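User: I'm putting together a small comparison set for a docking exercise, and I want a reference complex before I start. The sequence is below, and the ligand is zinc ion. Could you produce the 3D structure with the ligand included, as structure tokens?
Assistant: Of course. I'll restate your input first, then give the structure tokens for the complex.
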Amino acid sequence: MENRIEKYADLLIRSGLNVQKGQNVVISCPVDCAPFARLCAKKAYAAGCREVIVRWTDDELTREKYLHADDSVFDEVPRWVSDMHNDLSAGGVAWLSIAASDPEALSGVDPDRITRDDAAGGKALKPFRDRQMSNFFPWCVASIPTKAWAKKVFPELSAEDAVAALWEKILDAVRVYDDTDPVEEWKKHNANLRKRADTLNAYNFKYLKYKNSLGTDLTIELPESHIWVGGEEKCAAGHMFNANMPTEEVFTSPKRDGVNGIVYASKPLVVNGDIAENFCFKFKDGKIVNIHAEKGQELLETATTVDEGASFLGEVALVPYDSPISNSGILFYNTLFDENASCHLAFGDAYPCVKGGNDMTREELDKFGINASITHEDFMVGTKDLSITGITHDGKEIPVFTDGNFAF
Ligand code: ZN
Ligand code: ZN
């Protein structure tokens, strides 16, 4: 296992971030995962980076803050935090985020505190977020197990065994094995995803229609000159990187006001440190007009109203039901993994997935119907029986998904 973990750290630095000589590297990481952060730092220095800057996170401290900090704390972001994000991103930093939260870390916290904190962060870190969404700098989100998270995934195991089991699943999902070169594996994987995106781009669909037995009946309009992307992407300096590891999706942006119908979630969703389950969204002209959830009603209502754009879609992503993470049969309670086991949508901010989008101003993106928000939250909608039909500009109907998998 140790050998695989070291190869994984190397993969994140080389294929995830593609760290360049002289580049600054930020590693944002739970303090529980310090040994892994050190491993990544060593790999980054070996790649010739200028300096590794570590931003420690801690679920317990975050929870304590939301429960007990002075109320004024949630309306402002300290200058040093915004300066750090905004200055480093302007300089083309490479940013690694290790996402490994306890899915229920913030259960019972006052949602108003989370919303205000999100809003303050969205405002103060806007330059950073805009540069991230347009791939100005290379960034990568990946995960490693923590005890709290692993116990949620494998409740029947001891904490130690659960961590070992989750490691195994994560390393499988990111294609890191003892006997193969993961960097080469990712080159092949990226090429396959690219092929899928190319096929979708050639069709240039105007609408996608989703249907399944959960009750989903949704039409999504796609913007003029939208582009599907998948796998590696290019940062402003021209270097390729993988923003998510694992990734199994190809995705594009929906047209902001062109979504109508109802969509049912196919997996629980961890949002704002708590879990929503068995929910559906009803859309009218792009906007979520009704939410029904068996669990997490308030959670979803809060998350989709943090600003105006939060109640519109910002991502359409296709993942076959027969994909490695999905076939593992495990519910990860971590969106990075669960979204790559299932077709998903996101409410909130959209990636500028239109031709030339990375260089467009906000006003230009608005014209194409690219949504803007301080939030971006993926939720899973793919099922074994999901069908998606693409409708071309001249009205032809082409099967895109049949029985949960790509039709081509
Ligand atoms: Zn996605
Ligand atoms: Zn997303």
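The chain has a mean pLDDT of 95. The first helix runs from residue 2 to 17.
User: Thanks, that's exactly what I needed.
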